[in-house]
């Protein structure tokens, strides 16, 4: 995966957890709600991974350094609320490749913690130290806002990428009234 733009890197880091499931279903699309849910479920683990990966370059007043953990706590609460939408998205991504029995096994094995476990190594792999200040800046701007804003921001960036035909790095397609968005 080649990511040239730091915002794309931040979005991809948050979405990395979903790549395997979504790639399994080539024509499957995710709704805005499902994708936003996946982003929010992945966010707590992503924040932890970014904090670890970028600890040497984070600003002293970075919300990622907050010893009280307010930012992570807010995203953990949002992740719990978003889990049903995220799970629905993961299940729909496997729908065309799995039979009903396999889908039930997948559904019973899926947990928000599993999504986070899948995400952390991805972030460590793709997040270069020179991208850390940009991710820190983005999180500083988003910290005062509800976590749902971050989920919707990532959805908007994904939509823009699809509308511009920049889908080669995307592990999913967004649905628009039941059909993938096409440029």
Written description of the protein model:
The structure is a single chain. The protein contains 8 helices and 3 strands; from the N terminus they run H-H-E-H-H-H-H-H-H-E-E. It is mainly alpha-helical. The protein has one domain. The chain has a 3-stranded mixed beta sheet with strand order 1-2-3. Helix 1 runs antiparallel to helix 6 (112-126), helix 3 packs across helix 4 (70-94) and helix 3 (32-54) crosses helix 6. The protein is globular and about 50 Å long. The protein starts with 5 loop residues before the first helix and ends with a strand.
Oligomer class:
single chain
Strand runs, count: 3
- State the end-to-end CA separation: 21 Å
Radius of gyration: 16 Å
Q: So how many helices?
A: 8
The biggest sheet amounts to: 3 strands, mixed
Give me the secondary-structure category.
mainly alpha
- Uncertain stretches of 5 or more adjacent residues: 1-26, 178-183
Main sheet strand line-up: 1-2-3
Key structural traits:
183 residues, mainly alpha, three-stranded mixed sheet, globular
């Amino acid at each position: 995966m080649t990511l040239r733009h730091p915002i794309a890197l931040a979005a991809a880091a948050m979405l990395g957890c979903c790549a395997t499931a979504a790639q399994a279903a080539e024509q499957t699309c995710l709704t805005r709600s499902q994708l936003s849910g996946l982003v929010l479920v992945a966010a707590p683990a992503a924040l932890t991974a970014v904090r670890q990966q970028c600890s040497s370059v984070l600003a002293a007043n970075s919300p990622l350094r907050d010893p009280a953990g307010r930012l992570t706590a807010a995203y953990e609460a949002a992740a719990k609320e978003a889990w049903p939408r995220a799970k629905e998205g993961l299940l729909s991504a496997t729908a065309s490749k799995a039979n009903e029995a396999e889908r039930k096994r997948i559904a019973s094995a899926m947990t928000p913690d599993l999504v986070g476990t899948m995400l952390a190594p991805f972030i460590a792999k793709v997040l270069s130290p020179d991208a850390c200040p940009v991710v820190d800046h983005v999180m500083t701007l988003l910290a005062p806002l509800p976590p749902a804003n971050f989920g919707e921001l990532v959805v908007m960036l994904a939509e823009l990428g699809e509308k511009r035909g920049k889908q080669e790095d995307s592990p999913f397609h967004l649905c628009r009234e039941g059909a993938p968005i096409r440029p």
